[in-house]
Specification:
Radius of gyration: 20 Å
Number of strands: 6
Order of helices and strands: HHHHHHEEEEEE
Number of domains: 2
Shape: flat
Helix content: 25-40%
């Protein structure tokens, strides 16, 4: 979370700093203050926990952030999924997916095709054909989605063995 929160604050501050002059909130701190001052209108259903955590998180220039980022990259690549995909010469993934996000229902609770929200451990959203994800040096493209499955081909400089 240290990396996510530090980068979120940095990027959001940069975005807000470049918005038109009529946008009064110029930083994450401004947004948090505005939301607190207008909580009844701005946050009737949700809080701003992640915004507030991001304000308190170590910045991207701190040793805590640099250490957390290095650990995350190492665990994702050299010791994680990228390593396993390369080691086992994986060229495609078949992934379980779910429909697009459902509407929020503050009265009855969110309804999904699976029943009430929260019943699933995790939900991934179907991606359009041209969407690509970059994960530790591997580029994945989702050219096909059908129902509850998505097929993704990994495009990487992985050496290929000839078929026998």
């Amino acid at each position: 979370m240290t990396v996510l929160l530090g980068e979120f604050r940095l990027q959001l501050d940069a975005y807000l700093a470049g918005t038109p002059p009529d946008v009064k909130s110029r930083s994450l701190a401004d947004l948090v203050r505005y939301n607190r001052d207008n909580a009844a209108r701005e946050m009737p259903l949700f809080s701003q926990d992640l915004f507030e955590q991001a304000l308190l998180a170590p910045g991207t220039e701190t040793p805590q952030y640099r250490e957390a980022r290095a650990t995350a990259l190492r665990l994702a690549d050299a010791e994680g999924l990228s390593h396993l995909l390369r080691k086992h010469e994986v060229e495609a993934l078949l992934l379980p997916t779910a429909p697009l996000a459902w509407k929020i229902d503050a009265v009855n609770g969110d309804q999904t095709p699976y029943g009430r929200a929260g019943g699933m451990a995790s939900v991934s959203v179907r991606a359009p054909v041209r969407t690509c994800w970059f994960f530790a040096g591997l580029e994945m493209q989702a050219p096909w989605t059908h129902g509850m499955l998505s097929w993704s081909r990994l495009r990487s400089p992985m050496p290929r063995k000839p078929l026998k």
